[in-house]
Design a protein that fits this description.
Strand content: under 5%
Helix content: over 70%
Largest sheet: 3 strands, antiparallel
Structural class: mainly alpha
Length: 469
């Protein structure tokens, strides 16, 4: 009879049994179960920053808001200061108007170096150089130097504005709820443009101070801007910017050239060119129009200009929520349609009250167009092209803000300021046609950045949080 015996191995003995290694597929399956895949799935999308996430953004976003408020005060003060500059220096209108053109030169230079600034120095470089250009220029203005020095220093002001405009618009345009946050950013600009002429006029007319006294306030504002921006963005170096905004490895040219080769860049630039032309022409000539054509008093004419910029502030603050619901493409078409109707009423109804109300409402509906266009661009183009596209678009648009007011003035010299209205109407029709040519991509707004229904949170091999849809 066969028997079998079972013996227990002595633990102290050197005999052991070799076990096979786990199959590679099994390891990969275990990693997938743990949610630690080496690379994110194709359906993974980036979790977007919010105004309060990461926590440092709670300081960075207000710093950008203050920076745009300073830029708005700078741009809004021109109309109030020009008559006093003309009198103080004994200049003709043609010569004094150089202060409108020199900032455009600075914007143009900024559009060429924006990408280089970001790649080499990051947002830290913009946070230092942009406000520093403001502060140095305003200190010199407050010393009321010879007029040619003013013209030159306004180039530096425009350069700082161009850096700040492109950098903060592109950064906030990539956030969750970008329509709302961008609306607040641009509202800060409009608010600055609203209060600056009131402050300047009060200081000069009622306070009996020189035109340069206004720049005492601007020195303080830009000093605060430099301090807050530098502190908030100090850690955002060039290497961090390149990591967060990688360039397409197949790209054969630099980021700026790649942006200029894209049709969307030129559509955006032409849209901003026409938009800025309409905005600055209307805001700059409304006082003369109300005085000459509607026979308004000086106070009522000034109040109409304040109403336009105030309406723009309100529109950028509150219509951004409607924009987020309708989507960028449809909302701008709606705003343009309303703007055309309001402009026709402003032109054809010869009533002072009606004109004052309609110009304020024009500010409301025109206000969201600029930030909404920027948000759409951030959805249509890769992140590596945002700074180049927005920088070029704002510089090109700045030329519209310089060229069209001069065209209005030149025509008004021969035909009268009543020609302002058909020019504004033509510009609105032109930018509407350009907007129709824009791709409708992007559709829905940026996600909120957190987990939502149908989304799964994962981590890629580098530890970068991703969302798998």
């Amino acid at each position: 009879m066969a028997t079998s015996t079972m013996t227990q191995a002595d633990p102290s003995s050197s005999s052991f049994e070799l076990q096979p290694l786990p199959a590679q597929n099994a390891c990969e399956e275990n990693d997938k179960v743990a949610g630690l895949e080496e690379t994110p799935p194709d359906s993974a999308v980036e979790v977007l920053q919010k105004w309060n996430s990461p926590r440092i953004n709670m300081f960075r976003v207000p710093a950008t808001f203050w920076s745009f408020f300073v830029v708005g005060m700078n741009d809004g003060s021109y109309g109030a200061l020009v008559p006093h500059l003309e009198e103080y220096y004994g200049l003709s209108y043609t010569i004094v108007s150089l202060i409108f053109l020199s900032p455009f030169a600075g914007y143009t230079i900024a559009s060429g170096v924006n990408n280089m600034m970001h790649v080499k120095f990051g947002q830290r470089g913009v946070a230092i150089v942009g406000p520093a250009c403001h502060l140095i220029s305003y200190i010199i203005f407050s010393l009321h130097p010879p007029y040619p020095v003013l013209v030159i220093m306004f180039i530096f002001v425009g350069f700082g504005n161009g850096l700040i405009d492109a950098a903060w618009c592109a950064w906030i345009g990539n956030m969750a709820n970008s329509n709302e946050v961008s609306g607040f950013l641009q509202a800060c600009y409009a608010l600055g443009a609203t209060v600056a002429p009131l402050i300047a006029t009060a200081m000069i007319s009622k306070g009996g101070l020189g035109w340069y006294a206004f720049y005492y306030i601007m020195v303080g504002g830009s000093a605060l801007e430099l301090t807050t921006s530098t502190w908030a963005f100090w850690r955002q170096t060039g290497s961090i910017y390149q990591a967060e905004n990688p360039q397409d490895p197949n790209a054969k040219t630099g980021r700026t050239r790649e942006a200029l080769k894209n049709k969307i860049t030129w559509l955006f630039a032409l849209f901003i060119f026409g938009y800025m032309g309409a905005e600055v022409s209307l805001g700059g000539w409304i006082v003369v129009f109300m005085t000459k054509i509607r026979h308004a008093t000086a106070f009522a004419s000034g109040a109409s200009a304040t109403g336009f910029w105030g309406g723009m502030t309100v529109g950028r603050l509150f219509l951004s929520f409607l924009t987020a619901r309708l989507g960028e493409f449809r909302s701008v078409l709606l705003y343009l349609g309303i703007a055309v109707v309001l402009e026709l009423i402003f032109w054809l109804v010869p009533s002072l009250v009606t004109s004052a109300v309609t110009v304020a409402l024009l500010g409301v509906v025109m206000g969201p167009m600029f930030p909404t266009a920027i948000v759409l661009i951030t959805k249509l183009l890769p992140r590596s092209l945002h700074v180049g596209t927005i920088g070029f678009g704002t510089a090109f648009g700045g030329s519209g803000g310089a060229v069209f007011p001069f065209i209005v003035g030149a025509i008004a010299q021969k035909k009268g300021v009543k020609t302002l209205q058909p020019i504004i109407l033509a510009l609105l029709a032109a930018i509407a046609a350009l907007w129709v040519c824009m791709p409708r991509g992007g559709g829905k707004d940026h996600e909120s950045g957190g987990e939502s229904e149908g989304q799964e949170l994962g981590v890629d091999g580098a530890g970068q949080e991703t969302v798998s849809v």
